[in-house]
Design goal:
The chain has 1169 residues and is an alpha/beta fold. The chain contains 37 helices and 43 strands. It is globular and about 110 Å long. The relative contact order is 0.11. The structure holds one RNA strand of 86 nucleotides.
Length: 1169
RNA sequence: GCCCAGGUGGUGGAAUAGGUAUACACGCAGCACUUAAAAUGCUGUGGCCACAAGCCAUGCGGGUUCGAUUCCCGCCCUGGGCACCA
């Protein structure tokens, strides 16, 4: 039988069935072997079927998985379906078929196609995100986020696709268009569920550092998160009179003092360049800024401003962010702001080039050092102040600063002297100094820079009559060694253009150091060689731009910052702002919260119920005081009052044994309150009250919504500390206190389960409570260390109040976990409504429901989750796909996690991979998964392009169908060709002709194995090559360099003329991961009863991969002149001796002196003559 | 504009702790087998020169080095991502 017959007889299908039957690819839970979790990004089963891009990654992981099984690993290699999402739904609407039916069909097609390629998936673990048994847990995870306060409802302007009629996440918008359908998105105010991914921004960023991902994917995520450091600065707002002279810098008076015209409010800006504060000459606020509303009465041109705001609102995002567009804006007349650093009054503008959603929605404009402000200031004729000068430090040998010489600082001018008639400029050639410059010189004490420019011009050129003089550009600094003076020079220089009137010239010309001549303007650029003069010439030719380079500057016009480098000035200014209480260090991110709801049908229902009644119900707060305290002391009465004003019901009981605390007594007195508390309610414990709160929850076993432990007395103190307690309060009952505090251990596990949100707040200067008593907290406790709060014994505690107010219920009640999954109802019509609600809103008997808490009338949330929800945790479910108690058993997770290798397309770099990491981190914080980061190693396969090098697309008709390829060449050849095309990560064009090379190779192997004679022995050379190949193929697979592994096997087969059985068997095993069907067949033909995949990967013999003879290269002056076949490990002396005897080498060495000989063992000899 | 990746024969690509550039494969040419073609096998295949020797070639221009595809500096081009993010 030929290889072609094998393919024709469906030999591949035969083995696929056999593998499925024997369950050879099954991964064992808790196997004794080392584990490997090899994961593909599970596909979205589209109607178009499998694309050639899919099998690329799948083949890579398949080879990898099969290799590690042969190496004795328990490999988890699963596959599933990411099946919710818009395409199926849109297709359903078009064809009138249920999305569920379409999805089932698509999955069937995908599965058939994937199976036809012989991948070694453990199909027992197949999952489907649209299966209620799966999305039950997607919903459950959402509820955990909700309970943690990481999911919230907000009506915000979001990206909306008018065609898909749904809101989109930032990540789903590409070039202002919907990622799915290409329609231009608009901004629309919509009620949304948002996920607080920004709370994890820092961890999502820092977590990247330790991951084995390509730097480019990490860079994409870092860019997307977009962290920047800077400062927030407050500018006081004052009423301004147009007639009044602008305020200068009120020397001697406090810069922060503002007069009677102060309007009692400030504009806060965010800047990454606090160093440039002295250059801030105006402010800009975004059209959405809330200040407009507050200042309405003060703004004199409010009509004009409101008109501008309306216009900005009507623009699409694409229009607003179009870079080509002219900047627009309106000044807020009647108000001004005060630059806090120098007291200068500056105008406030409104413009849509400032985004409401970033930073504070307002900026200080520093036009000289920001391109956008530069453009705006020039357009509206606003003042521009330079505060950073470019600094040129000489680097050439001659000009380099000499540390042993004195540095003379002075003001200088650079003069562009323009010819009276020609377009040429007078330039100087400094001969032995290697300088070629314009006219230049120092400014004397008694003259202005302009006067100096004219004087220098006259001295150095002799010309006398000036037609005009004009400054070019700003101030620049220059630091170099002046050889002709023997000193270092630091120059602050300005540049002037001096146009001559006529040729009148004196003959008293200074030519001591230089010769002058006219250079035509087209040649000036190449003539001049001083970088600072080149800089000015560039400005003269091309106009001035904003100077934004932070690294090559030095501060000027900035009082206490002068002469600092900007990087130093940023720190100094930030400290100044903090000291003067008008600003502070701040960090900002480009990352926005995740718009999580979709107004569509085909997604997981969000398992929340809205209950008006519960919203009206007062939330209860129980405040438990500490040792020797009372409900009427400390900040408790204040807190009670504040909370009651905000609609809470507050209990502040006083314990009868406050001073000699007894646990039993406290529990007895607190339990009645506890009975009133529920999953929405809040307990605050202070000091020993925290300890009591924990014991109360433990004793009653009741679930509680939020627990706040403030200055909490928990953990064990040392005997010395207790002694101090006794000495400090001799009359008090410290013994009882100690018995209460640490007499009996707290059941932390139980309390952690019962309290949904757990917060501990300590102060770093608390005299009683030391943070080390809190260091063994279990997972899931939110620990905050505040500064300067002592033991929290004050009459008002606004910071704590703020935290409690944030727990206020919204009326949204989670569907009880035992009622999950909340299944997606079957509907006849699933067209999007476009009203901001999903089609589910029309299923009245589904929407109307009973409140799980009060049993009253309530309605369900009708928005559904985005497609990304199901894929944000699926790798966890593969580990325990049938579990109906938890999404996955923690012990199993501990065994299989993390994913060792994750392979998929780079298009998911910021969507799936960011969301997935976020969910995994949240689950980690809640103690449900063992690692913070799910994917240790990430590999992005490159795109497979069409034969013409363009992207494959249906419209171009250049799509390669995997089915056709398998039919024509077999699965083995198709898989191997995809791997042979080039490095996995690279984009590479498909070449249908190329696959024949693989077919020829497989056929060669087939014939070799079928025809070898049993008594054959192989040559020593072939033996060496076999062992080398085993080594290389193994290493290449581990590094996912499949193309070179295949090439190595080809080399081996090309050299194999006579082979032995042992040779054939070893070779088949190393080929098996690549071509599983054919090798299994041949293995069987060789008489083996068991599968080849039950074998072990052959060991290579280190002693057998050493060649006996090597080729030594002889170079002369780096050029190859001879190659000698020599025994391996030949000594340096012998090799050199033999090299010198070579005819060609002799020819070159004849009569020459060998200055140096370089010997690299087993590689080369290099003679230098 | 900013960030990332890359640029090697006719084509896909090998080779970088600096050490024989072009492995392997496609394609092409020639030969063998055949009445012929296909298939298969063998041989050749960067350019100049064409026997050898030599010279020139890894986007372009410089630099470091005995020696650079590999390291450094400056450009050009292609692909991907971000983009009025202060």
């Amino acid at each position: 039988m030929t290889y072609k017959d094998f393919l024709k007889d469906n030999g591949e299908g035969k083995w696929q069935d056999q593998w499925e039957k024997s369950q050879i690819n099954r991964a064992e839970d808790f196997g004794s072997k080392p584990k490997k979790y090899v994961l593909d990004m599970f596909p979205y089963p589209s109607a178009a079927g499998l694309h050639v891009g899919h099998p690329e990654g799948y083949t890579a992981t398949d080879i990898y998985s099969r290799y590690f099984r042969l190496k004795g690993f328990n490999v988890l290699h699963p596959m599933g379906w990411d099946a919710f999402g818009l395409p199926a739904e849109n297709y359903a609407i078009k064809t009138g078929t249920q999305p569920k039916v379409i999805t089932e069909q698509n999955i069937k097609t995908f599965k058939r196609q994937i199976m036809s390629l012989g991948f070694s998936y453990d199909w027992n673990r197949e999952i489907n995100t649209t299966d209620p048994n799966y999305y039950k847990w997607t919903q459950w995870i959402f509820l955990q986020l909700f309970k943690k306060g990481l999911a919230y409802e907000a009506t915000v302007p979001i990206n909306f696709c008018p065609s898909c009629k749904t809101g989109l996440a930032n990540e789903e918008v590409k070039d202002g268009k919907c990622d799915r359908c290409g329609t231009e998105v608009i901004k629309k105010d919509m009620r949304q569920w948002m996920l607080r991914i920004t709370a994890y921004a820092d961890r999502l960023l820092s977590g990247l550092d330790n991951l084995d991902w390509t730097e480019s994917i990490k860079a994409l995520q870092r860019n997307w998160i977009g962290r920047s450091e800077g400062a927030e600065v407050d500018f006081a707002v004052i009423a301004s009179e147009p007639s009044r002279a602008k305020r200068g810098n009120p020397a001697g008076s406090s810069r922060l003092s503002v007069g009677s015209d102060f309007l009692g409010m400030t504009i806060r800006v965010y800047t990454t360049r606090p160093d440039t504060l002295f250059g801030a000459t105006y402010m800009v606020i975004s059209p959405e800024h809330k200040l407009i509303e507050e200042l309405k009465g003060k703004i004199k041109n409010i009509k004009e401003v409101e008109k501008y705001i309306a216009q900005a609102k009507n623009k699409t995002d694409l229009e607003r962010t179009d870079l080509a567009k002219d900047k627009t804006g309106v000044e807020l007349k009647g108000i001004s702001a005060i630059n806090p650093v120098n007291g200068t009054e500056i105008p406030v503008w409104i413009s849509d080039y400032v985004l409401a959603s970033y930073g504070t929605g307002a900026i200080m404009a520093v036009p000289y050092h920001d391109e956008r402000d530069w453009e705006f200031a020039n357009k509206f004729d606003l003042p521009i102040i330079q505060v950073v000068a470019p600094l040129f430090t000489a680097v050439t040998e001659k000009d380099k600063i000499k540390l042993d010489k004195e540095t003379i600082r002075r003001k200088m001018v650079c003069v562009l002297v323009k010819h009276w008639a020609d377009d040429s400029y007078y330039c100087l050639d400094w001969g032995k100094h290697d300088w070629k410059s314009f006219v230049m010189g120092g400014v004397e004490a008694n003259e202005t820079p302009e006067q100096a420019a004219v004087r220098e011009m006259t001295e150095e050129t002799g010309y006398q009559n000036v037609k005009s003089i004009k400054q070019i550009g700003g101030e620049i600094h220059n630091n170099h060694y002046a050889e002709h003076k023997g000193v270092n020079r630091y120059a602050d220089s300005l540049c002037f253009l001096v146009e001559l009137k006529n040729e009148k010239r004196s003959d008293k010309i200074d030519t001591e150091h230089h010769q002058g001549d006219w250079i035509s303007s087209s040649e000036v650029k190449s003539f001049i060689n001083l970088p600072n003069h080149k800089w000015y010439w560039d400005i003269f030719q091309n106009g001035e731009k904003a100077f934004v380079d932070i690294d090559s500057g030095v501060m000027i016009n900035s009082e206490f910052l002068n002469d600092l480098r900007p990087s130093e000035a940023i720190g100094k200014m930030t400290s100044w702002l903090e000291e003067n209480k008008c600003g502070h260090k701040a960090v900002n991110y480009k990352l926005r919260d995740w718009v999580f709801s979709r107004q569509r049908y085909w997604g997981e229902p969000i398992p929340l119920v809205y209950c008006e009644n519960c919203k009206k119900q007062k939330q209860k707060v129980l405040i438990i005081h500490g040792w020797e305290g009372s409900g009427d002391g400390n900040w408790f009465p204040w807190m009670k009052r504040e909370l009651e004003q905000n609609g809470f019901e507050v209990f502040t009981p006083t314990m009868t044994t406050s001073a000699s605390p007894k646990i039993e007594k406290w529990m007895e007195e607190l339990t009645p309150y506890m009975e009133k508390m529920g999953e929405n309610d809040i307990i605050i414990g202070h000091s020993l009250g925290s300890n009591a709160a924990l014991r109360l929850i433990e004793k009653t076993g009741k679930k509680i919504g939020h627990l706040f432990l403030v200055g909490s007395a928990i953990g064990k103190l040392s005997d010395e500390l207790w002694k101090l307690f006794e000495q400090g309060a001799p009359s008090s009952d410290v013994k009882s206190l100690r018995e209460f505090w640490e007499g009996r251990p707290i059941d932390w596990e139980k309390v952690t389960q019962l309290a949904i949100n757990k917060n501990i707040i300590l102060s770093d200067d608390d005299p009683y409570i030391h943070t080390d008593t809190h260091k063994d907290l279990p997972e899931g406790w939110n620990f905050e260390l505040w500064h300067g709060h002592k033991h929290f014994t004050v009459f008002e505690a606004p910071e704590i109040l703020k935290k409690v107010l944030a727990c206020k219920t919204t009326g949204w009640i989670p569907v009880p976990e035992n009622e999950l999954p909340l299944t997606l109802p079957e509907v006849d019509k699933y067209e999007p409504t476009g009203t901001g609600e999903s089609p589910l809103v029309n299923i009245t008997d589904w929407v109307k429901t009973k409140c799980p808490i009060c049993g009253g009338e309530a309605h369900r949330e009708t928005n559904t989750m985005p497609q990304w929800a199901g894929s944000s945790w699926y790798w966890l479910r593969f580990i325990d796909p049938q579990n109906d108690k938890v999404f996955a058993d923690l012990e199993k997770l501990k065994y299989f996690m993390p994913v060792d290798v994750y392979v998929g397309g780079a298009e998911h770099a910021v969507l799936h991979l960011l969301y997935g990491r976020f969910w995994n981190m949240v689950l980690y914080d809640l103690g449900y998964v063992p690692q913070e980061e799910p994917f240790t190693k990430l590999v992005n396969q490159g795109m497979i392009l069409a034969e013409n090098g363009e992207k494959m697309s249906k419209s171009q008709g250049n799509v390669i169908n995997p089915d056709d390829q398998v039919k024509e060449n077999g699965a083995d050849a198709f898989r191997m060709y995809e791997m042979f095309m080039g490095p996995l990560e690279d984009a590479k064009p498909w070449n249908t002709k190329g696959i024949i090379g693989i077919s020829r190779f497989l056929e060669k192997v087939w014939n070799l194995v079928n025809n070898f004679s049993n008594d054959g022995t192989i040559t020593p050379e072939l033996e060496i090559l076999l062992h080398k190949t085993i080594k290389k193929v193994g290493e290449d697979i581990e590094n996912m360099r499949f193309n070179t592994a295949i090439s190595a096997m080809m080399v081996l087969i090309n050299e194999s003329k006579v082979v032995s059985k042992e040779f054939v068997e070893k070779f088949l095993i190393i080929l098996a991961p690549f071509a599983p069907h054919m090798t299994e067949e041949l293995w069987n033909k060789l008489g083996h009863k068991e599968s080849i995949f039950k074998e072990a990967w052959p060991k290579y013999d280190e002693s057998k991969i050493k060649d006996e003879e090597i080729e030594l290269v002889i170079q002369i002056n780096g050029k190859v002149r001879a190659k000698l076949k020599l025994p391996v490990d030949i000594s340096e002396a012998d090799a050199i001796k033999l090299a010198k005897e070579d005819d060609n080498v002799k020819k070159y060495l004849e009569g020459a002196e060998i200055k140096k000989t370089i010997f690299v063992a087993n590689k080369l000899i290099s003679f230098v003559i």
